[in-house]
Structure prediction request, 416 residues.
Amino acid sequence: MSAVEERLPIALRTEALEQLLVEKGLVDPAVMDKFISTYENDVGPLNGAKVVAKAWTDPEYRRRLIDDGTAAIAELGFKGPQGEHMVVLPNEDKVHNVVVCTLCSCYPWPVLGLPPSWYKDPAYRSRMVREPRAVLSEMGLDLADDVEIRVWDSSSEVRFLVLPQRPAGTESLSEEQLAELITRDAMVGVALVAAP
Amino acid sequence: MDGIADMGGMQGWGAVKRPGDEPVFGEKWEGRAFALGLLSMRTSGTNLDSFRHALDRQSPMNYIADGYYGRWCHAAETLLVDSSIIAPGAVEARARNRRGENVEEPAWPEPNKPDYAPTAAGSLREVTEPPAFAVGDRVRAKDIHPTRHTRLTRYVRGREGVIARIRPSAVLPDTHATFQGENAQHVYSVRFDSHELWGPDAEEFTLNIDLWESYLEATS
Prediction:
């Protein structure tokens, strides 16, 4: 298409495509509804938070999780599309991991749901592999100079989950209470988990 | 291909968004486009790599202006037109009619799906040949410019790194996307130093990216 051609509103194009496919019997709107409601209601970062909270409270689970992320995550019932092979990246005092997909927006759906808008934004995709410390700072995470940053570009079907560090002062919290502290942003690596 | 989707290292996009609470789908059509994108692969007889290649092939203007789920809608249409499930121009004509114009819609074409069937579910496959590289080997990402789909990002081409881990072997997206075979290969997590990628003034960090064996060559 040329740059001067009129562009139709994308919402209208989407409606038109759905209408054509439904008319022809190629797509069932109820199946579409199910996909949408699954990712709106059932699959989201609460899954990943349960994985992290368990790893914080169960050293044996943490070992399994780092050794074979896919199997350990499946123990909690989380698997499916975009989770074929999971790799868990443990943060340490002097190591911070952060995940990006420069080519599309690959993201570990079974544990985090669908990606947030900033993850899909060209600014994040282009800059996280080039100036991660500056990007993290813009996002509100200022890491000490002696913390090594490891950036992971999700170029294959491997999907990454960052295992954040457990904040100090949470020793008395239960696994369920800990899970409530753990955010999507911390599991992508653009934030730390804060104590309550 | 060297298209709009290969964004690593581009400049000019400005500040990143600060994370906050947001709905999964900001607008209703985004959810519909998401579902149509997923269903388009089955309906067109293609696969996830084909879908990503359809994203690569969108005009940069559509890719950016219509956003993430907008490009899913465009990619779905591309796959469905490629497989002659819908006619070129059919979506645009229907869209115009939905807003009250009166344009002729093209006839439904005779479907022509690709001659393609996966050998197994998912992307992971056994490879009988031993890996060409071992953990710790120094390698160079090939400086090549395929016109087809590839996961060899521009920003690592020609750069030297170290094999950090061997990943499960997997179908090669480059050929799988266009039904030229699964060509399963070993996949490696390759670690690059930031200065190798971005020069002496770069921030200090390491970049890890998964690369298929045929993307790599041994350093001399």
User: Anything to note?
Assistant: The mean pLDDT of chain A is 96. The first helix of chain A runs from residue 10 to 23. The domain at 43-188 of chain A is CATH 3.90.330.10 (Nitrile Hydratase; Chain A). Chain A touches chain B through 72 residues (CB under 8 Å).
